[in-house]
Predict the 3D structure of the following.
Amino acid sequence: MPTGTDLVGALRAYAQKALGNDFNAEKAATALNAWVKESGDALKERIERETERAVKKLGLAKESEVRELRREIATLRADLGLEKKRSGQASKSAKSSKARKTSARKVEARKKKAASPGAKRKNTLARSRKKRG
């Protein structure tokens, strides 16, 4: 495994190759900055390529592709004189109403269970087991 001194040695070797025997701190900093920028650009390009490849492999669409398709759909709907579906709002309210009913049923079931004879004793036993366990 490389250590910090290996990195320093590698940088010194690179500086000697780039600058020769004429070592100047300003020249070294300029060369190092150029090298870092080139390496960063190459790394960024590689990451972008690999990311695109992985996204294609997964079958996902890019945000720009989705936007383009939405524009195309809107254009086609306008050409056909169709309006956007407005049933989305109705289905959302129906879903939330159903969720509220289900939630209310669960609350009622818990209340009934808690009010049943022996429920308090069962809860106390369960708590004492948790403390021991």
User: Anything to note?
Assistant: The first helix runs from residue 4 to 19. The radius of gyration is 33 Å. Helices lie at 4-19, 25-58, 63-80, 87-115, 119-132.
